[in-house]
Design goal:
By secondary structure, the chain is of the alpha/beta class. Helix content is 31%, strand content 19%. α8 runs antiparallel to α9.
């Protein structure tokens, strides 16, 4: 790896963190490489809240500090909901569960990866063209074991402790990937089904330029399912998208951009397959 690429990678993974209050009850914490969300109104009587995803390893202290700054000292989420179990979404979860007495919820198809039964396929550096793809072999694909603390999301589509929200199965990036949608205001927590930056470009990641793109390629295993999941999100007509990678995106042109992403995704997927082979 060239010195310039090393410098870019160091900048991408550096602190400090940043924060974004998308709505009074949805708070995005931007960690190195990935975002987590905190859903709950700090001005409510109960201050109940839910953590969405758990970031990378050694980020537990940062997540805890952000939560306490928002909800008060000693706060504990009612639940942790995981969009899926890749390393950058569960990296700090054991650290958090050591501190918090709470339950974890995932799609049933992710349970084998979170109960010590299976590992994910290894990352594929040939599925992308940028710096992140090049260093992806360093990313862990190992499953973890949360034991009795992890449960399948309710089969009726509801999300524990998140009234008004529903989970939607959006596989392709992982078998049990889910996105979370609130119809009342069109807010979509997309996880890794798409990104709001170009992950093939370290410069784009560093500049935080908003651009809709597909899921992180190096961990995406089923491109046909990934395309179908994008179609599902397009048909929801979201008004605001929060991705695990990139800044929240909204505005009048969001529907147009999402439709274009879906239309272009087939050629992108074909290109990824050629890179793989």
């Amino acid at each position: 790896m060239e010195a310039q690429e090393v410098e870019l990678l160091q900048k991408i993974t550096a602190r400090p963190l940043s924060f974004d209050e998308v709505t009074p009850d949805v708070f995005v914490v931007e960690l190195p490489l990935v975002n987590v969300c905190m859903v709950g109104n700090p001005n409510s009587v109960t201050r109940d809240w839910v953590l969405i995803d758990a970031g990378t390893a050694h980020m537990g202290r940062d997540i805890t500090r952000a939560a306490e700054a928002r909800f008060g000292l000693g706060t504990v989420p009612r639940a942790i909901v995981l969009t899926h179990g890749h390393f950058d979404h569960v990296g700090a979860i054991l650290e958090l569960l050591d501190k918090w007495n709470t339950e974890v919820y995932v799609h049933e198809l992710e349970l084998p990866y979170l109960t010590g039964q299976m590992d994910y396929p290894p990352p594929n550096p040939f599925a992308g063209e940028g710096l992140i793809a090049q260093v992806s072999p360093l990313f862990s694909n190992r499953g973890i074991d949360l034991g009795a603390r992890v449960h399948a999301l309710p089969s009726d589509g509801s999300v524990p402790w998140m009234p008004g929200w529903r989970w939607i199965h959006t596989p392709g990036h992982s078998p049990g990937h889910v996105s979370l949608f609130r119809e009342s205001d069109g807010l979509l927590i997309a996880g890794d089904v798409l990104s709001t930056l170009d992950q093939d470009s370290a410069e784009s990641i560093l500049s935080r330029e908003r651009v809709l793109s597909g899921p992180p390629a190096y961990f995406t295993t089923d491109w046909d399912l990934a395309k179908r999941s994008l179609e599902i999100l397009r048909d929801l007509r979201p008004q605001m998208i929060i991705s695990s990678h990139g800044l929240p995106m909204g505005g009048d042109k969001l529907a147009e951009q999402l439709a274009s992403l879906v239309d272009e995704f087939q050629s992108q997927a074909s290109k990824r397959r050629r890179l793989v082979h």
